[in-house]
Design brief:
Radius of gyration: 18 Å
Helix content: 25-40%
Low-confidence stretches: none
Mean pLDDT: 96
Distance between the termini: 31 Å
CATH topology of the largest domain: Rossmann fold
Number of strands: 11
Bound molecules: S-adenosylmethionine
Order of helices and strands: HHEHEHEEHEHEEEEHEE
Number of domains: 2
Strand order of the largest sheet: 3-2-1-4-5-11-10
Number of helices: 7
CATH architecture of the largest domain: 3-Layer(aba) Sandwich
Largest sheet: 7 strands, mixed
Structural class: alpha/beta
Length: about 240
């Protein structure tokens, strides 16, 4: 997972404005009482978001279990410390003030107990009072947005997504076929199957509390105001580390 896709990831994500995302996350950090000191990126992928955090004055570093992703991150950010590790169970040499995890990375942990371990490792990697930001797909979102077949097509690529949601374990299996345009109108083609577990806001709140965090805000993804609407595809969680565990 995330190995074949790595070298094409930035191109596939091109329609998305990472500068806007980082402005949003920076606002949430400052709003939660944090500082523009440093940020550690869980599931950093190609670390596009870290470009904009650096522009705002943050020191950056990240972690990913895909060697291909880490190599791209190191190439983009020479001299920056990147860890190749599983976010379920990791250790850092120093403690951070801010930790982020972007684009439903949290959902790739498909077992609730393992997500709890990830939050425990995150607690240990942070200073007290530090801000932990992550977005996650809800059960509703995986069914509503992803189930079935859909395609995405641009000048440069064609992707088909064939997804099935398992109502027993709340895991979505998404079979993707990629066709990436190369020179001479030829295409590179490869498949990847991804698994995401949908989480409810109650589960996230419970796991954060268990691991020394307080959930201070739960927002619709990319929005700055909370809503009473419970049918949301994706949430942005803003948590603060309140105790050591
Ligand atoms: C959806 S991508 C997000 C990448 C990047 N943060 C972004 O916003 O564009 C998810 C990333 O999380 C990584 N990942 C998924 N599960 C992981 C795990 N258990 N440990 C470490 N990295 C993981 C994948 O390799 C991938 O790079």
């Amino acid at each position: 997972m995330f190995n074949k896709i790595a070298q094409h990831y930035d191109m596939i994500m091109q329609p998305f404005d990472y500068n806007d995302l980082v402005d949003y996350l920076d606002d949430l950090i400052i709003g939660a009482g944090g500082d523009r000191t440093n940020v550690f990126d869980l599931g950093c992928g190609t670390s596009e978001e870290l470009i904009y955090f650096r522009q705002l004055g943050y020191e950056v570093s990240g972690l990913d279990f895909s060697r291909e992703m880490i190599e791209i991150s190191k190439y983009k950010h020479p001299g920056v410390d990147f860890i190749e590790a599983d976010m379920i169970n990791f250790k850092t040499k120093k403690k951070f003030d801010n930790v982020i995890s972007c684009f439903d990375t949290i959902n790739y942990i498909t077992d609730k107990k393992k997500l709890s371990k990830c939050f425990a490792s995150t607690n240990k990697a942070m200073n007290k009072g530090g801000v932990f930001l992550f977005d996650f797909n809800t059960v509703f979102g995986l069914i509503n947005e992803w189930e079935g077949v859909r395609i995405e097509e641009t000048e440069q690529f064609f992707i088909s997504y064939d997804s099935e949601f398992n109502y027993n374990n709340l895991i979505l299996e998404c079979k993707m076929k990629f066709f990436i345009k190369e020179e001479d109108d030829k295409y590179a083609s490869f498949d990847e199957t991804h698994y995401e577990r949908g989480y409810t806001s109650e589960e996230i709140k419970e796991l954060l509390k268990l691991n020394g965090f307080k959930l201070v805000k739960l927002l619709p993804f990319l929005k700055r105001k909370a809503t009473k609407d419970t049918k949301l595809d994706r949430y942005q969680a803003v948590a603060v580390k309140i105790k050591e565990i």
